[in-house]
């Protein structure tokens, strides 16, 4: 290869080889931040700190593409759809009976990444929410509520029994 009258084994950084039967010379790449190129308008390796994408060099990969740090190339990333609406606030699959619950929203993976090393963004989110209906109406009572009512009933029965005994002993003493 010739460059400025000097013969070289290969072209220096930022140049590419032009070969024809009557010439072999190095020409400058026209791509900004290109370290080596295939032709004047197609880069094959970018300078340090830049990512290669479709023959051009970028400071960061364009939208929809992810960077592979080991090769400094931009590859098709994971594409996700829009977020769904927030689901109804619930807790333990119930929409009542608690003060606080969780609501969730999701989105689908539209296109999987070219390489498995590129992670997809989050596809589900949850956040704390206040339940719209705190007390369930007409629902089955929990064991705690049943126990409380049973204890109250037993207390009432014992109190009535003691009162009856007191009245009976009071009448007998008269």
Describe the structure.
The protein has one helix and 14 strands. It has one helix at residues 143-172, and strands at 2-3, 6-7, 15-20, 23-28, 34-39, 42-46, 51-53, 56-58, 65-68, 73-76, 79-80, 100-106, 109-111, 124-130. The strands form seven sheets. The chain has a two-stranded antiparallel sheet. A hairpin with a 2-residue loop joins strand 5 (34-39) and strand 6. The longest helix has 30 residues, at 143-172. The protein is rod-shaped.
Summary keywords:
single chain; 174 residues; alpha+beta; two-stranded antiparallel sheet; 1 helix; 14 strands; 17% helix; R-spondin 2; secreted
Secondary-structure map:
Blueprint: E1 2-3, E2 6-7, E3 15-20, E4 23-28, E5 34-39, E6 42-46, E7 51-53, E8 56-58, E9 65-68, E10 73-76, E11 79-80, E12 100-106, E13 109-111, E14 124-130, H1 143-172
Antiparallel strand pairs: 1-2, 3-4, 5-6, 7-8, 9-10, 11-13, 12-14
GO molecular function, one term: heparin binding
Domain Spondin-like TSP1: 78-131
GO cellular component, one term: extracellular region
Short summary of the structure?
This protein is an alpha+beta fold. It contains one helix and 14 strands. The strands form seven sheets. A two-stranded antiparallel sheet has the order 1-2.
Query: Given the C-alpha coordinates, what overall shape results?
Result: rod-shaped
Mean pLDDT: 80
What is the percent of helical residues? Answer: 10-25%
Poorly predicted sequence stretches spanning 5 or more consecutive residues: none
Order of strands in the sheet with most strands: 1-2
Provide the structure class: alpha+beta
Radius of gyration in whole Å, from Cα? 39 Å
The beta-strand count equals 14
Oligomeric nature of the chains: single chain
Count, helices: 1
End-to-end separation in angstroms reads 134 Å
In terms of DSSP E residues, the strand content is: 25-35%
Largest sheet: 2 strands, antiparallel
The H/E string reads EEEEEEEEEEEEEEH
